[in-house]
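Consider one such protein record:
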Amino acid sequence: MVKINKGNLESSVKKIVTETQVYDIHTHLYPEAFNDLMLYGFDELISYHYLIAEALRVNAMPYSEFWALSKDKKTQFIYDTLFLSRSPISEACKGVLTTIKKLGLNVNDDIKIFKENHLKYSKKEYIDLILKKANIKELVMTNDPFNEYEYQLWKNDLNVDERFKSSLRLDFLLNDFKSARYALSKMGYNVTTSLTGMTKNEIKRFIFDWVKKTNAVYMAVSLPPDFILPENSTRSIIIEDCILEVSSELNIPFAMMIGVKRQTNPELNLAGDSVGKFNIETIEYLCKKYTKNKFMITALSKENQHELIVLARKYRNIFLFGSWWFLNNPSLIKEITTMRIEMLGLSFMPQHSDARVLDQLVYKWEHSKKIIAEVLVDKYMELIEIGLNLTYEKIKEDVNRLFSQNFYDFLDMDL
């Protein structure tokens, strides 16, 4: 046993956090078997919607003109606007630089070198490289059978990289059932415009089938700020009468990512979404009524965080995870992680990458781990000052809980 004291605390915690492998429980990433859905390389990294919104904020190019550009010209426009004409000081820009550096390149090199770097590798080799650099053990994809391209891939019995786990995404079903029912009918499910007993049974059959086909570890949906339960709406009925029944029977979580306002500025396309605060009483209702169901929750609004932490203290069927999307910034990660530790101890998942481009795993975990380590150092220092004996091995167990074991335990838990 290696005893931890004030002198070796910081270096020990940083080493443990850096070396601990991660289970990244929410991404939009895909392995090579998914063909065009696998996004990787510098062009994709810099053409991410965070950087698009930032570049078009400071450059007066008309939105339509930007979207008409080729991928190569979009990359050059963003690089010129954010990295050459001004200092790339935002978190999204710094993330690009961190990734370049961690891949062994000089951040001051020519853009051509960055763009060509991934060409030295096969897709599988590049996946192996990025997962090693980010120290990722496993990650969870976002799998949507309502996406026709992905649907056809799954129909052909995909050979999926075992490090890439599945989650069944149900946004289309819950947020646009009028359109989703046509897709369900095309897939062979006998659904109608009204939520009759037959239609609900067919929706449940669809969910069962696709959880089994994808081997999903959880079901998920992204929801708007005005999401509320109980409510006499199509979305609410499907959640309570279909999704939660399947979730309970299969003992898999239902993940709700709440607070996104879609297309606040539609001219920005994917970059045009925004954020709003939701009513926490909805989650309280679900946890109180459905005590045998597991709920994974993350909220997009900073204002919801304290309420969610308090609620998680009351209901063990809530699993809080990550600093999602607009919260994935150092100052907010630090604040939210500190609050969670102070009220929940080590019983949550401090981060997920939400990465859409494989390369993003490198910087998102590099940056987050640095902040999480700082929070842990402060908290362990307080314990040492009180007089508690700490060991390297105990801290290693704690960090492993935060980065993977808590999620494994939640998946296996019987409520």
